[in-house]
Structures are given as C-alpha cells and as structure tokens.
Amino acid sequence: MKRINYHKSILSATLIGAALCIGGCNDDFTETNQSKDSVVTADPTYLFAQAVLEFEPSSYMLWFANAPGFYYTLQTAVPSGSITDNVIEGSERQDIQSISVLNYVNALKYERSQMTEEKSAQYEGVAAAMDVLSVYLGIYDTDICGDIPFTEAANARYGGTLTPKYDRVKDLYDLWLTMLDNAIQTFTNSSNQIDLGTQDVIYNGDWSKWAKLANSMKLKIAARLIFQDYSHAESIVQEVVSASCGILDGEEDDFLFHKADANNSSNDYVFHWNNTTLWYSGTHASQPLINFMLENQDPRVRFIYEKNDWNSKVIDYFLANDRKSDIPSFILENVETETVDGVETFKAWKGLGEPWVRYYGLPVAYNAQAYASLYGE
Q1: Distances in Å between the alpha carbon of 254 and those of 127, 175, 359?
Q2: 209-224 pLDDT tens trace
Q3: What was the pLDDT predicted at 87?
Q4: Residues 49 and 171 in one domain
Q5: Are 91 and 69 a contacting pair, CB within 8 Å?
Q6: How many structural domains are present in the chain?
C-alpha cells in the first residue's frame, strides 16, 4: 500500500508540472532552438579576425622543406647529412597557405551579397584588407610552388568548383597588382566604413596603414619581375614611389603582430615553434658565407648562426685530460695555450677572438670530404 501511494505522489507531481507548463510556457523558442546545421549569418568583422588568426606565411613544414630549400639555393647553408636524406625528408610537405585566408574572403563576399547595397559598402575596407592578406600569402605560395589555384579556390560552398584551376604565376602577378591598387583606392577614398577596432590586431582599423602595406607589397612583386620584365618592374616601383599613401616606414608601420601568449598542443598560434631553423632542418652554415662575414666582422653572424660548443672551458677540459688530439685542428689554430704546473691549459684566443673564432662553415662542394682527400686539400 505504501508503494502504491509513492507512485501516486510521483504521478500527481508530474500532472501539476504539466499543467503549470501548459499555462506558463507560451514563449516561442523557434528562433533560438535552431539546428546546429542551420545556415546563420556571419559577422564580417569576425570573419576578418579569424582570417588574421589563420594568416600564416610559414606553417610547420617551414623547417622540413621551405627553409632548407632556400638555404641551399642561396648557399647560406648546406646539408649536414646526406643530400638524399635531406631531399626525401623535405619532399611533398608544401601546402598552399593562401587557402586559409581565401576561405574567409569568399565567405565575406557571400555575406555582403545578402546585404543591401548601402550596408555592403560599409565593409569595402574589410574586404580590401582581406584581399591584401590573401595576396601576401599568394606571393609566398608561388615562390615555393609556382602555379597555384587562386581565382577559383575555396569557393565550392558558394557554387564554385571542387577542382579549381591552377593559375599561372605571371597572370597572378597581374591580378595581384590590380587587387592591391583597388585596395589602396578603397583604403584612401572610401567613407562611412565599419570600424574594425580591436578586431584588427595588425593595425587596429587604421586604413592609412593598410594602404601603406598594400603599396609596399607591390615592391615584392616588382622584385620578382626584375629579371623577367625589367621595364614592368621599374614602372611598378615608380608607381609605388609616387603614390600619395606612402610606404611602410619605421616601427609604427610594421606589419608585425603577436598572435598568442601561450603554447599548447591543440592550437599552436605562438610565433612559430621555438625551433632553431638551421639546426632543426638538418643544415649548417656554408663556409664561403661564414668566411666572408668573419673577414668583414659582420655582426649579423651572431644572430643568424650559432656558435660552436668549443668554448675556452671545453678546450681546457680536453687539454687537462690529455685529449688534445681530439680537438679539431681548425679549432686549435685559433687557440693559444700555456703550461701551468706541468699541465697545458687554455690561455687566450688568437686571431679575432670571441665571438668570431666560434663560427665555422661547411663547404658547399658536393662530396667535399672525398674531393679534399683525392686532391690532398
């Protein structure tokens, strides 16, 4: 009997709750309770902020492919392992960086197409800034990959293709120059623009600085055309110099920003990844460049390259333990020793002294060790 009464109590409470709900729950939640798959309106300023967050000229493959490739070509560094190992490790790691911004460029185009003409015009500056970001990454992509998908890329969700065509680099340069010119016009002439404010962590919504950036980026294209079409490159430079908006000039105009303050495993947006590029990519300084920098006591050698581990204390340890023969001959050439209580010890550096004597480069000649032994060098 007690058990039956217990269930009756539950039933009564349920009926009372239902009655209260019928009488009081008249609000319409259809606007709030949308499906997670529903299409919603994106705020253009948020799209811009996300594009900036994902803007990254060098993704993680920089250390494995891009940087070593540039170093070898410029002979600023040489492989520390075999040529085969370095080529295999660096192959097929390149991806297209401009796609990360083009996603939001096309999203913004769609959102503006749904607005009134008057409201859409207020976001011309935002669209122009995102174009500048996409051009910046596009230049970087073509430096590495050559022809890339750009004009038809990242547009499938808005009626575009899943197999975008590859645009020729020459055509892209012409397109990008036009995009940058249009952006400069927008930044300098458009009125009644949405204020990005803190959504723009680069220039805080200062369109005059965005104009300087766009104008300066034209020089990047001119530099790439100088050996292909000198007259065109020269005309671009003249346009840049004569432009009323000016160019990037000083720290106040620098296109440099810090994305985050913490490093974690899932979203590593900190300015790259604490890797020492030259060492991590299996490369070391080239002998000709190091020798040139040392001869001219170029201070940049201290910031571009790392000193070797043969400091005075290490050398003293080897001398004190009767292991002088283990010290490389090119190190000993710059060491002055003295005998103290019958033990040879480090006294001073010869030549240029610290820090210059701590930098040595590897030869750029293929199979240099075998070549040297063959010809007695």
Answers
A1: 21, 25, 32
A2: 999 999 999 999 999 9
A3: 45
A4: yes
A5: no
A6: 2
